[in-house]
């Protein structure tokens, strides 16, 4: 399968912080055209997520979008 193509047509949802501070803002990014392997691989730069970001959660599927919005109050 070509790089950047999804194995299945499910979005990848990432919740991350931009620093290690306890009051750092939590953000969520949804990728509809990337595989989960491309998103979590540290060697591949992901547009929209800074290099120093700390991943809190990663989910595959539509259900994680609403779940993470409620959990992190986004």
Question: In short, what is this structure?
Answer:
The chain is an alpha+beta fold and 74 residues long. It contains two helices and three strands; from the N terminus they run ββαβα. β1 and β2 form a beta hairpin.
Q: Could you please describe the fold and organization of this structure?
A:
This protein has 74 residues and is α+β, with helices and mostly antiparallel strands. It has one domain (12-72). The chain has two helices and three strands; from the N terminus they run ββαβα. The protein has helices spanning 36-40, 63-72; strands at 12-17, 26-31, 54-60. A hairpin with an 8-residue loop joins β1 (12-17) and β2 (26-31). The longest helix has 10 residues, at 63-72. It is flat.
Key structural traits:
74 residues; flat; alpha+beta
Indicate the overall shape: flat
Q: Percentage of helical residues?
A: 10-25%
Count of alpha/pi helices: 2
What order do the SSEs take from the amino end to the carboxyl end, as H and E? EEHEH
Q: What structural class do the secondary elements suggest?
A: alpha+beta
Strand order, largest beta sheet:
2-1-3
* Amino- and carboxy-terminal Cα gap: 33 Å
Q: What is the number of strand segments?
A: 3
Mean pLDDT level: 88
Strand count, sense and closure of the main sheet?
Answer: 3 strands, antiparallel
Whole-number radius of gyration? 12 Å
Low-confidence runs: none
Strand content: 25-35%
